[in-house]
Amino acid sequence: MNSEQEQPRIGIFICHCGTNIGGFVDVPDVAEYAKTLPNVVHAEHNLYTCADDGLTSIKNAIKEHNLNRLIVASCTPRTHAPLFQHTCESAGLNPYLFEFVNIREHCSWVHMKEKEEATLKAKDLVRMGVARANLLQPQAEKKVDVIPKAVVIGGGVAGMSASLSLANQGFKTYLVEKRDQLGGMVRNYYKLTPTNIDAVELIENMASELKKCENIEMLMSSTVKDVEGYIGNFKVTVEGDTDKTLEVGTIIVATGAQEYKPDGLYEYGKDDRVVTTIELEKMMRGKELEGIDHVIMIQCVGSRGEAIPYCSRVCCMTAIKNAIYLKEEFGIGVNILHNEIRVYGDDYEALYRKAQEIGVHFNRFGENNKPNVINENGKLTVEMFNEGLSRVEEYPADLIVLSTPMVNIPEAEELSKMLKVPLGQDRFFFEAHVKLRPLDFATDGIYLCGTAHAPATIPEAIAQGYGAASRASIPLTRGYVQVEAITSYVDENKCRGCGKCVEVCEYKALELIKLDTGREVTRSNEVLCKGCGTCATTCCNGAISMKHFSSEQIISMIEAALTEPALVKPLTNGFKPNIIAFCCNWCSYAGADLAGVSRFQYPPNVRIIRVMCSGRIEPNFVFKAFEKGADGVLVTGCHIGDCHYISGNQKAEDRMNMVRNIVHMLGLEKDRFGLVWISASEGQKFAELMTDFISKIKELGPTPFSIKK
Amino acid sequence: MTATKNILVIGGGVAGIQASLDLADKGINVYLVEREPSIGGIMALLDKTFPTNDCSICILAPKMNECFANPNIRILTNSELISLEGEAPDFRATIVKKARFVDEKKCTGCGDCTQKCPVKVPNKYNMNLDKRKAIYLPFPQSVPRIMTIDKERCLKFTKDKCGNCIKVCKAGAIDYEQNDEKIVLDVGAVIVASGFEIYNPSDMFEYGYGKYSNVKTAMEYERLICASGPTGGHLVVEPGGERPKRLGFIQCVGSRDLSRKNPYCSSVCCMHATKEAMLAKEHYDDIETYIFFLDLRAVGKNFQQYVDRAKKDYGIKYLRARPGRIMENEEKGTLTIWYDDLIDPHIQSIDVDMVVLCTALMPSSTAPKMGEILGIELDEYGFFCAKDPLANPVCSTKKGIFIAGYCAGPKDIPESVAEASGASARASEVIAQSGGGDVP
Question: Same domain for A132 and A164?
Answer without folding.
Answer: no
